[in-house]
Q: What sequence folds into this?
């Protein structure tokens, strides 16, 4: 549809339909491949410390969740980290933050090089996070929902001794259902608002977004975290959208019924997480704003990056816990 930010990801009715994840390999101790080997017949890569590199962007909420989970579980020294620039052009994510513009481990200037090395015929949008094999330069996975769950389950032997259980077995049925609702209406819902190219598609996404935020506010009014007294993957997934809400989604994506700061329960909950070790220090509001306002030229053709909002409230007392 004309006027769409990503024309290949818009339906005939003007709704944004996110592309599927192309690479869905998994790193697991159950792989039958030898150390240093490639994926087995089921696409399972061998579990090895120091072999894989997580490529993320500080601006991207999907990549941000992988960065947070990696840190909370103590995998920082086990899975290396590469960071792409927040400004993406027609060539995709670039390693412009590194000396000479090349990732120091993979030796590439654009993440697309790893994608094309893995699938020379790939024509879709290059996305982060991506877990890349440093031995071959191939992309293991860009399947962001499964990636973080695997960090909790498949990488357990490398967890820090005091690592939290972000995906408790007994809570998984309820968590999976809740995370699916959060993804549909909130995580992806803000994009469905921002990238809609018809009034009807926008109205539908907007209504679902704020109805879900109201339901989450009600849920969190009686508990500190989404699943009770401890942080889980569900909280990480909600946080990365909430922390971008006022600086990007409220204005840029027209999610403007209320600001996060005007939703008392969610605002206190988000500040609680922001002030928790492993969360706030991974947030870069400058990268977030520059990415959204300077790369979506169909939405913001002037590429002017707003100076606001005031961010000082993130470090104020949250009154929870």
A:
């Amino acid at each position: 549809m004309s006027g769409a930010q990503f024309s290949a990801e818009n339906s005939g009715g003007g709704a944004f339909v996110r592309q599927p994840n192309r690479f869905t390999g998994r790193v697991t101790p159950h792989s039958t491949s030898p150390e240093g080997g490639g994926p087995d017949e089921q696409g399972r890569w061998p579990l090895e410390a120091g072999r894989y590199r997580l490529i993320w962007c500080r601006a991207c909420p999907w990549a941000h969740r992988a960065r947070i989970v990696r840190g909370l579980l103590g995998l920082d020294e086990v899975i290396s980290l590469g960071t792409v620039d927040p400004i993406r052009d027609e060539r995709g994510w670039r390693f412009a933050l590194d000396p000479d513009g090349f990732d120091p481990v993979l030796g590439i200037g654009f993440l697309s090089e790893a994608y094309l090395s893995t699938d020379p015929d790939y024509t879709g949008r290059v996305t982060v996070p991506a877990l890349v094999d440093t031995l071959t330069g191939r992309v293991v996975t860009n399947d962001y929902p499964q990636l973080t769950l695997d960090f909790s389950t498949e990488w357990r032997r490398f967890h820090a001794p005091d690592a939290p259980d972000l995906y408790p077995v007994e809570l998984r049925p309820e968590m999976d259902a809740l995370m699916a609702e959060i993804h549909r209406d909130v995580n992806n819902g803000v994009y469905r608002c921002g990238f809609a190219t018809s009034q009807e598609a926008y109205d539908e996404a907007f209504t679902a977004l704020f109805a879900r935020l109201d339901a989450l506010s009600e849920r969190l009014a009686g508990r500190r975290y989404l699943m009770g007294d401890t942080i889980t993957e569900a909280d990480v997934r909600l946080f990365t959208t909430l922390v971008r809400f006022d600086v990007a989604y409220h204005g840029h994506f027209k999610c403007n019924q209320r600001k996060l700061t005007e939703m008392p329960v969610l605002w206190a909950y988000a500040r609680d997480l922001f002030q928790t070790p492993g969360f706030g220090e991974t947030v870069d509001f400058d990268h977030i704003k520059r990415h959204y306002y300077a790369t979506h030229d169909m939405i913001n053709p002037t590429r002017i990056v707003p100076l606001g909002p005031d961010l000082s409230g993130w470090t104020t007392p949250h009154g929870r816990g």
